[in-house]
Please model this.
Amino acid sequence: MDFAFSEEQEMLRAAARSWLKAQYPADRMVSAADSERGWDPRSWQELDSLGWLDPGLGMLEYAVLAEEAGYALYAGPWWSTAALAAPVLGAMPDQPTTLAWAEPGTPDLRSAGRSSTMTATRAGEAWELTGSKLRVPDLAIADSVLVVAGAEGGSGIWQTQLPEHGVTPLSTMDTTRRLAGLRLDSAAATMVIEPGEASDVLVRVRRRSVALLSCEAVGIAQRALDLCSAHAKERIQFGRPIGSYQGVSHRVADVYTALQLSRSLAYWAAWAVDADAPDVDHAVTVAAVSAGEGAVRACESAIQVMGGIGFTWDHPVHRSYKRAQWIAAFDGTARSRRAEVAAALLD
Model:
């Protein structure tokens, strides 16, 4: 059986890498992340022209794009749209869209559909949403938001435009992917998922979002490896490149070996989601543990190899470090994910 990407998928990877390298060098990434909005809205039209929003793309194509976006640390709502909104809508939206699910007492996506303090009520032929949500990714830069809400019959999902007032940006570690709180008061909405059916949809959202974040984490770890290995070759200490010293070379080698495992597991997770494999939840969880923590360790090793310069504002690796920590903390913790793996193996 051939588990390699197809020629077309590799061409997509090469095109994405070339565009991101040309259009998103470190200085543009930094200026976008440090801007008031946190991204360059013109990039959305660029992504559209490059085919990133093509409704014909599958999960494996998204995995390729997520890895390259992670490597370049693209700042924009593509992941929120492709990973959170698209599986709810059944197609890739043509405008930046995110999903609001978190509330007090909902530790992860799977539990968000069981109950909701956000309520949906009929107003004639339409619907109205009232309530609040926490920690919504990319909310402040989205054009519309999908909201998990409770109604007669159970939890469903509705789509609404962002209110003029009601979006509260949160102070977060990673300015390239910001969070915000959402408050709605009788906001007009369109039903997307019927009441009582949100839980099954959110399971699919979790699988897809975590799998794509694992691929993104692989790109971040690869960037950290490239930066620290290049520095180890160029930095001269005591008349020798520092990479010739075991304390440095072993650290770089450890990052490399861990990255190969993370990459394999991330690709497996993407394939399992695409094929709806019986072990898809196990594949996604294992990939999240390996790739998420691996990206954090890769960035920490890069900072150590660089003698701490990687953590300064003048170097991009500290921003990758923050994104890696954001990914590792998404929808769970290392402890909770390891508990899932243990349950799958032992129960």
In short: The chain has a mean pLDDT of 92. The radius of gyration is 21 Å.
